[in-house]
Every structure is written in structure tokens, then in C-alpha cells.
Amino acid sequence: MYPKINFPSGHDYVWVDTLDCGFIFLKPSYASIQKDSFIFENKTPSECWFDIDLSQLNSKIYCSYYPINKENSLTDLIDDSFEMAGKHNIKAEYRRESLIEIPDKKIYGLMFEISGPVASPIQFYVTDSTSHFLRASLYFESKVNPDSTAPVLQFIRKDIDKMIDKLEWKNK
After folding, report:
1. If you write DSSP's letter for every residue of 33-83 in order, what string do you get?
2. Which one is predicted more confidently, 16 or 145?
3. Does a structural domain hold residue 9?
4. What is the total count of domains within the chain?
């Protein structure tokens, strides 16, 4: 027997302007934005770290945006993304990597789909390769049983795809 899932009705979206961060995007209307509360040395690492709370589906998308500069090189940011995805290899049954390319919007990146009893089955990064870098990870807020979470993952995947497809970089 599987638990009953109360899915949000439909896939409606609202625009989110990240203000001082370098992008705007669509989020599901059933989700809320929360400032990231992760603390390093008594402060959050960036004003551009936030969570998309999908509490109705017992999950969150953790987002971190970085301007590409001397402190945050594109190579280092990409390496960090691979390292973060790789932390799930110990429980993963398989990891699929898919290119993200929307050239007319200067959006390039990689989607990591990690199957098995992992806490973060979808992670991705997108960049324009010169100024902007956004990394995001979907986490379930409970013990993961892939059979039970598969319908939720399929539902959220549509929202993640929409977020990536409609994302727009802001000029500095």
C-alpha cells in the first residue's frame, strides 16, 4: 500500500523577481520562496540563496545563485555542482546527465537525474557562461522510497522544466 498524495491542482505559475540577484523565473503557484537559512560563520553565504518550499509535496528546491567573477570562477562552480551531485552516488542506482541548452536566452547547463533511494533525485545548474550561475537541488523532506516518491518526482519535474525554460538573466 502506498500513501495517498494530495497533488496541487494543475501547474499554475507566478513570476519571481530575485531583485538584486541576476535572474527572474517562474515558480509553481503552490510553492513559496524562503530565504536560505544555511549559516556559515554567523551569516548566510549570499543574499541570492533561497529555497522554493513545496511543502504540499514534502519537498524543497534549494537554489544558490552566484555572479561569475574572480572569486567564483565558472570552472569552480561547475566542479562544485558535480561534487554535490556525486555525494549521492553512494545510494544511487544510476545517474543520468542531460545537457540544458537554450541558446537564444544564453542558458546552458546540466541536469543530474539520480535514481535510487537518494534524498536529492534532481539537481541542475544553468549559466550564461560569463556572468550568471544558478544551481538548484530538489530534496525530499522525508525518507525516500523511490516507488512512493516517483509520482511526486514526475509532478515536480514539470515545474523544474518550466522554471528552467522560462528563466531569464538580468543584465548588470
Report:
1. EEE----BTTB-S-TTEEEEEEGGGTEEEEEEEEE-SSSS-HHHHHHHHHH
2. 16
3. no
4. 1
